[in-house]
Specification:
The protein is 27% helix and 31% strand. The chain has 6 helices and 10 strands, in the order ααβαβαββαββββαββ. The radius of gyration is 16 Å and the shape is globular.
Length: 201
């Protein structure tokens, strides 16, 4: 996770201010389901958060980089709650969210960390709520490149390990948390948009 802290220093607004296509698609889905409160683990400097706020949703973020949080405050104001810390230390509050959106973060974690993030998000998801994850696909040109770390996981460059997903591994990791959809999306890399809903007991 230290890579992301370093990457913000001297590279402000590195992805611009337009939300990702996945965030826009998720926003549209959440609007259709009347989602009101959204949690964004790994919120960065907020480019994928504002699109939800603009549609009337309250957004809470988690971000390890204080630099990124400062940038979010500068560009989007102080109203949004952002917890400073690692997603590994979730939960930061006892709120239940009816929407969770996690963009291009989970594939940077090892197996135990991915499992914990999924479990922690699901625990904070309200009954009937939705959580969407964006994860890199094995069809990415970087798959199989760099130093081999473990199955489907490679050190792409120093200190950055990526786990590459396919539909089978998505089903294995998300099958017990209400997985109902897998969509292929292409942004700067080919990704999967992984869609889960928490059952109503």
């Amino acid at each position: 996770m230290e890579f992301w802290e370093k990457s913000f220093i001297g590279k402000q607004e590195m992805w611009g201010f337009e939300p990702s296509a996945s965030a826009v698609s998720t926003r549209d889905f959440f609007v259709g389901k009347s989602v009101q409160h959204v949690l964004i683990p790994g919120i960065g400097y907020g480019r994928n958060a504002q699109v939800f706020r603009d549609s009337g949703m309250a957004v809470t973020g988690i971000e390890i980089s204080q630099t990124a949080i400062d940038m979010a405050r500068q560009h989007y104001g102080p109203a949004m709650t952002i917890y400073h810390g690692s997603v590994a230390d979730m939960p930061y509050d006892d709120r239940q969210y009816d929407g969770i959106f996690c963009y291009a973060l989970i594939h940077l974690l090892d197996g135990a960390e991915r499992e914990k993030l999924i479990r922690d998000c699901y625990s904070q998801l309200a009954e009937g709520g939705y959580m969407f994850f964006v994860a890199i696909s094995k069809t990415a040109p970087t798959y199989g490149k760099g130093r081999f770390v473990s199955q489907d996981r490679y050190e792409i460059f120093e200190g950055v390990n990526m786990y590459f997903y396919d539909r089978e591994s998505i089903s294995a990791e998300f099958g017990q948390v209400g997985l109902f959809g897998i969509a292929e999306v292409t942004e700067n890399f080919p990704f999967y948009l992984i869609k889960c809903q928490k059952a109503i007991s």
